[in-house]
Amino acid sequence: MKIAVLLSGGVDSSVALKLLKDQGHVITAFYLKIWLEDELAYLGSCPWKEDLDYAQKVCKQLDVPLEIISLQKEYHDEIVSYTIAEIKAGRTPNPDVLCNSRIKFGMFLSAIDPSFEKVATGHYAQLKEVDGQMQLLRSPDPIKDQSYFLSHLNQEQLKRALFPIGHLTKAELRKLADQFDLPTKDRKDSQGLCFLGKLKFRDFVKHYLGEKRGPMIEVETGMAVGEHNGFWFYTMGQRQGLGLAGGPWYVVDKDPTKNIIYISRNYYSPEKSRDAFEVDRCNWFIDVPQQAQSFQVKMRHGAQRYDCTVTPKDDGRMAVKLHDRDQGIAPGQFAVFYDDTRCVGSGVIVR
């Protein structure tokens, strides 16, 4: 096949490229340039240059052509603007989910020659075609599994997608990278969001929203027990970075209009159930549930899944009832639903 491989400069996409090359496909690697240097000049460096350097070294070793595609304006308009708007509204965004649906499998597909049959990435996820429909399956590595971030793709996008390393665990992939002696074999995994890389999320938010002093109020007493530099730096369930004695303290609510953070030391008390929420803007890989159905759900990337019941509401939303409690149900985040290993859909937590 003629395949476009998205190369990030990391070890995962490098191994994906090598595997496809060895299978005899016609390969072109692409590096997506998404940074706006003028906006991020305050950071003092261009974080994409090191990644591009590694991508070039991998392509030279494997004798694969590499093209650089700039989607900087599109990225800012679709992902950065969304992220800032969600934070200002007091919600907790997940730009990685939209990065995949709008950029990597969205605008990138429109930017390349339509003769490319597939777009391959280094995601830890698997695909299976059943009766002409693509199923999105979890990776065997429960910690690295990235089906969560791919849960908002549509069928057309899934049919063009290819995940060559989705059947591997991270340990197995590292062994292959070492065996292939790839230039990226010793690179550490990026822990940042898709558009931040090594940069701290707090620095990104501060650049766009600045700082503004406001009170930290104990929710049970209504008393101000401290100050913060802006509600936008905090998310539901957060414990670290509050800077208060006598804790542990947790963020339990935010008031964006008054710049107030509500905190509590009784986060895990029995009366605080934290086992129900609603989702909207759902994307289903199965028929939309018409009655209560049992699934498992992730509310963030990682191995943690909860058994849950999903029930449709008259207003088009879905009510989700967990069979356990979760410490950080945050509006704005994506809830992703599973039937065992199969991802069946996702939605945005709204309440």
In short:
The chain is 25% helix and 28% strand. The protein has helices at residues 11-22, 48-62, 72-88, 95-111, 155-160, 170-180, 201-209, and strands spanning 2-6, 26-33, 66-70, 118-120, 125-130, 133-138, 161-162, 214-218, 224-228, 250-255, 260-264, 276-284, 293-298, 306-312, 318-322, 334-339, 342-349. It has a six-stranded antiparallel β-barrel.
Structural account:
The chain has 351 residues and is an alpha/beta fold. The protein folds into three domains: 2-201, Rossmann fold, CATH 3.40.50; 211-264, SH3 type barrels, CATH 2.30.30; 276-349, Elongation Factor Tu (Ef-tu), domain 3, CATH 2.40.30.10. Helix content is 25%, strand content 28%. The protein has seven helices and 17 strands. It has a six-stranded antiparallel barrel. A five-stranded parallel sheet has the order 3-2-1-4-7, with helices on both faces. A four-stranded mixed sheet has the order 9-8-11-10, with no helix packed on it. Helix 3 (72-88) packs antiparallel against helix 4. The longest helix has 17 residues, at 72-88. The chain is globular. The mean pLDDT is 90.
